[in-house]
């Protein structure tokens, strides 16, 4: 948005309105981005908990394989 500073009278009301409009759009964009970031952090938290749970389950499986498996009952 450019304003011509020539010899014509400068319309401060138009400039003020343009700046207010720009700020309103920026405020909306910032709020939308903030919502997106908050949503992504919630998803990241859920995924981190799932990874930790899977890691624990995997370690438990590995620990149970260290002990010899008992023979089947028909032996």
Low-confidence stretches: none
Helix content: over 70%
Number of helices: 1
Q: Report the portion of residues in β strands.
A: under 5%
Instruction: Report the principal-axis shape.
Output: rod-shaped
Average pLDDT level = 87
Description:
- The chain is an all-alpha fold and 75 residues long.
- It has a domain at 22-61.
- The protein contains 1 helix and no strands.
- It has one helix at 12-66.
- The chain is rod-shaped and about 105 Å long.
- Keywords: Coiled coil.
- This is Protein SlyX homolog.
- Residues 37-64 form a coiled coil.
Brief sketch in words of this structure:
Helices cover 73% and strands 0% of the residues.
List the helices and strands and how they pair.
Layout (H helix, E strand, L loop, with lengths): L11 H55 L9
Keywords:
rod-shaped; mainly alpha; single chain; SlyX; Protein SlyX homolog
